[in-house]
Structure formats: structure tokens, C-alpha cells
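Bit of a strange request maybe. I'm writing a small parser for C-alpha cell strings and I need a real example to test against, not something I typed by hand. Could someone generate the C-alpha cells for this chain?
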Amino acid sequence: VRGYVQTAPMAALISALAEDLVLGRSPCVVGAKGSGKSAAIRHLALLLSHSIPHARPARTVHLYKYMSARDLLIRRTTNRNGDTIWEPAPLVRAAL
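Reply from user aminoacidic:
Good idea to test on real output. This should exercise your parser:
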């Protein structure tokens, strides 16, 4: 997996995330930019795809500290005509 380097802390993160998923939890990975969050998730998804053939592909949803609850569920955008429309936010699309 591009960007993934197996270290003791990364192995512990992968193990904890896998445990959360097995227990039906929805883990959230938080860390500084460039700390390997996305690479760790891609690595975990690869491991899971080997053990769960029908698993859906992983999706990355970027969250920011200034986002509101509404931002997590719906977002305003414009269509080709320039009209304002509302569409599901990436978090909702990832859950569908």
C-alpha cells in the first residue's frame, strides 16, 4: 500500500481498528497531516478485502474541526445551470 510503513505504532493502530470493526463499532482516525492515517486505512482495507471478499471499497471522508453537524449530512452546491441544489455530504454517501 502506497505510503504505508509497518511500525509498532501502526501495527497497534491496525489491530485496534480491526477489533473495532469486528465488534461493530465505527472507528474514527484522527491525527496530524502526514501522520499516515489514510495509508493505515488503505492497508486495513486491503487486509479486510482478502478476508471478506464481498466487502465494499473503503472511502476516505475528510473532516475538519470547524464542520457543523449539517456539513456532515448535506451540502449545498450548484448544478450546470447555476441553480443551488442540496446533495448528501461525503459522510452520508460513504454510509450508503
